[in-house]
Amino acid sequence: MSPTAALIKAALNSNFGWSVVRHRLFVQKRDRWMVPLIALAVVGVVPTMVLYVHLLGAAFDMLKSLGQEKALLTLAVLAGQLIILVFGLFYLIATFYFSRDLEYLVALPLKPSQIMLSKFAVVLINEYLTMAPIILPALIVYGVKKNGGPGYWIIMPLTYLLLPVIPLAAAGLVVVGMMRLVNFGRKKDLLIIIGSLVLIAASLFLQFGLSRAAGTSGLDAQAIIALIGSPDGLVQTIGRRFPPAIWATRLLHDGLLTVSGFTGFALFAGLSILLFGGLMAGAQRYFFGGLVGLSERSGVRVRGGKALTIRFSSGRHPVRAIFRREVRLMNRTPIFLLNGVLGVIMIPIVLALTLSSSKQGSDSADILRLMTSAKPVTGILVTTMFMIVCATLGGVASSSFSREGRKFWISKIIPVDYRQQVLAKFLHSMAIALLGIGSALAVLVFRFHLGAWQWLSSLALALPVTAFINSLNLTVDLARPLLDWISPQKAMKQNLNVLIAMLLDLGFLFLYGLAFIALGRSGLSLAVVIGILAALGVGLACLAYALVRQFALRRYPSIET
Amino acid sequence: MIEIDHISKSYNKGAVRAVDDLTLTVPSGEIFGFLGPNGAGKTTTIKMIVGILKPDSGTIRIAGLDNRAEALRCKAMTAYVPDEPEIYERLKGIEYLNFMGDVYGVSGGERRSRVEHWLGAFELSRAVADPIQTYSHGMRQKIILTAALMVKPRVLVLDEPMVGLDPRSSHLLKEAMREHCDGGGTLFFSTHIMEVAERLCDRLAIIHKGRLAACGTMNELRDLAKDKASLENIFLELTES
Fold first, then answer.
1. Superfamily for domain range B1-77+154-169+182-241
2. Which residues of B are less than 8 Å from A561 in CB distance?
3. What is the rounded CA–CA span in Å between residue A129 and residue A48?
4. Model pTM score
5. ipTM of the predicted structure?
6. Does B226 lie at the interface with A, CB-CB under 8 angstroms?
7. How far is B140 from B144, CA to CA, in rounded Å?
């Protein structure tokens, strides 16, 4: 086996943990309970997928009636590539620069491009999996509805395989350049965070540009007729700011044996190869520079003169000490900070920006106000759910124990009651959740001009539910903490616990929403409905917190590191 | 002070028996050396003493307290230094020491005097304000040792504490170990350095394939072996498969 192939094989094995899973399931015979749980989670997604496929089918029929069914392909390709571009950035930074195995790999007789290739392969395969539930149904629905011949079914997987290459390679080039530029000086972590934020802002800008390009709200009746009149009208409108989506559409729709399809393929594959080649060339030149910069010592030691003044604390309460540790570890690990803290703050702001970028932005606020005045229960339900989702989507609680990684031994040996350790983690998760709620609240008040009564009611409902969800998510992570990770990304975004917790949270929120609507229709006054739901939330939060504390007493001693 | 009573620990659902019916007693005031080949069960035993691993059977008592039933009280009187210096890299050295001081309840005054003493001795005073991720292996080892010595525990459990230390720091640590036991404390440590074990330990145990191969003073161990020239010879003889 060539060194590159061996490296890619080892990287994939390490990332997906095939050897570890095989060992656990078949040698140690541990974690077998996870198999039915994962199967259950997959089955749980089926109803959503069925609904999604129905929606896609309806969208196809609607577009077909306008003679614009090709636009479904353009939308699918565009959506897939945008998802990769935006969400792939953190992943690329984490995998390229923060994997713990890099310090060993750098010492091996390997070219920077070989190491980069192995890391790129890991990200690429993860992106295939991430995109699959969103993009594959669209491509399959199109093929089935259009009665695509064998040609389509051969070209479709090929297009799917090529799909992430352009955005990933483009993002990779930017990341390699950025890391090379920011990796000097003392504040490299800060620079990485600022650089990442700039990249996210650029991605969002691109997204807004595309959404405006795809928007038809500014068109008059004549322009719409002209758009529909041309078979490629909608495809061109949607894809004009991102031509690869048009090329892929032509390839899929016309097939390889037509001039248009072959040209689409040549352009799509050509750009993919060009960007990928550029990334490898960039890696060969700049990858090690960025990497070495990261591992260099950043602290400034006073070599001569007076020693630094050392600040001793004087007996903080253990809960406060652990809370401070949690805050510091999260805020000083760029990947945790970006995913956990900045994520919850930014999502509501991104939403506000998205609506502002739309030409109908002002209407959205009007719709919400109208909805609130016509159906106050629905209005409060929407704003409460918005706050809860913004508060908890960072995965902070569901990765709380996993984030400790191989340092978990410290939590086992310190003379602090496990219940107190859980309290500190709960408080930390709540502190981050409050940032999310605050950000959501700011958007609701300043962007949607929500009345005080409504946001206060939503806040009263969202806070206890957030506390309940955080306790639930802590329980999920405590049940099976992922402690043996090499990249911090693995402890948060690639942590199965985060996914399991998210599915549980969604299930709970669905039931909570049903209860909300049922109470709203019961004829009780709104104040009583809110009172009942707030009391229910507080009760659930207390129960879940009590349970996670008791669970900690049982579970902590059996976690072995 | 440390009483290990018939403890066993296996992995892979019993396929690998790491520690097999081990019984040991380490009284107060004693430096106890724990020797054995790689994979003999030293680290597993140590992790069971400090509560990181749970024995499959048997009990461990610290100062007469069951280390599982009275876990918090046992932990409060024990400090542990692992073989791998895996600590919070994103904290500064002083933040780690303050964290350990807070959770062990070391008062501000005691913390300051002990930490300043050990930081000075280990030549870490200038580095302590830097993030731990900038430390070398030896510096990380020293900061963990400083934290353990700051706590001034009754029981010190050290897993290969000399690895990565420079000769001066190693010498200081040996002096500290002696001082700790002369003050009535107990010290349980594993090492592969036979000379250190031979010169420093009051008693020694050799573990092989999870079972106790020998335990006693240096003279008692000599009686068990044909080649009595050095601890290394005794060790090799007793751990021959």
1. P-loop containing nucleotide triphosphate hydrolases (3.40.50.300)
2. 52
3. 17
4. 0.78
5. 0.93
6. no
7. 6
